[in-house]
Amino acid sequence: MSSSGRIPVIGVMGSGKKVHGDLAKELGAWIANAGYNLLTGGGDGEMKAVSESFFQTEDRPGRVIGIIPGDASGGSYSRRQHYPNPFVEIPIFTHLPQTGYAGMQMGSRNHINILSSDIVVALPGTKGTSAEVCLAIRYGRPVIALLGTRYKIPGLPSEVPVAKTVEEVADWIEGLERKPLPTSCRLKKVTPPSEILDPDF
């Protein structure tokens, strides 16, 4: 937990269709026992598996957060089928429908997934997961891939560390907590709105 008392958020990204071995199950239990909140895209596959494992962990302080895709075009709102999965405790419904190949477009909730996470762990997946990893790099979020010994993420950037086990992920996260964030991850001074807006605004 951070010194401010806020429970940090670990965002777990991965396939919305397939579950690759026990990686998600083991990761979800570790995140829960370590005292973090869990954030996913709220769907099936790896997202559901990691959420279920986290949810079933007793005496955890954190919660399962799901960022849900939706469509508000045409004057009404609809969300994608099978969202949120039954283990999401705090669903965040968005008006952003784009996923998969369009995962880096501004109409994708992937931006919210990454910006709302303090740390990102990528499980096996395809284009959507790859987009989230790239967004983590763009937005300065620490990111690691947990791929076991036989899985992959297409187009995974070479600078992203790859772990074979949850223990390796845990060691990496603990290492982040022992050293300051790189300059790109620190908050930068922002000009106050009062200095930009017209006084009569």
Structural description of this entry:
The protein has 201 residues and is an alpha/beta fold. The chain is 26% helix and 16% strand. It contains five helices and nine strands. Helix 4 (127-138) links the parallel strand 7 and strand 8 (143-146). Helix 1 (23-33) runs parallel beside helix 2 (46-55). The longest helix has 13 residues, at 166-178. The chain is globular. Mean pLDDT is 89; it is low at 182-192.
| CATH T-level fold name | Rossmann fold
**How many individual domains?**
1
Q: Can you identify the CATH class? A: Alpha Beta
Terminal CA distance reads 40 Å
Write the CATH architecture name: 3-Layer(aba) Sandwich
Number of helices: 5
Class per helix and strand makeup: alpha/beta
Largest sheet: 7 strands, parallel
- The overall average pLDDT, rounded, is 89
Shape: globular
Strand order of the largest sheet: 6-3-2-1-7-8-9
% residues in beta strands? 15-25%
The total count of strands amounts to 9
The level of helicity is 25-40%
* Order of secondary-structure elements: EHEHEEEEHEHEEH
- Unreliable sequence segments: 182-192
CA radius of gyration is 17 Å
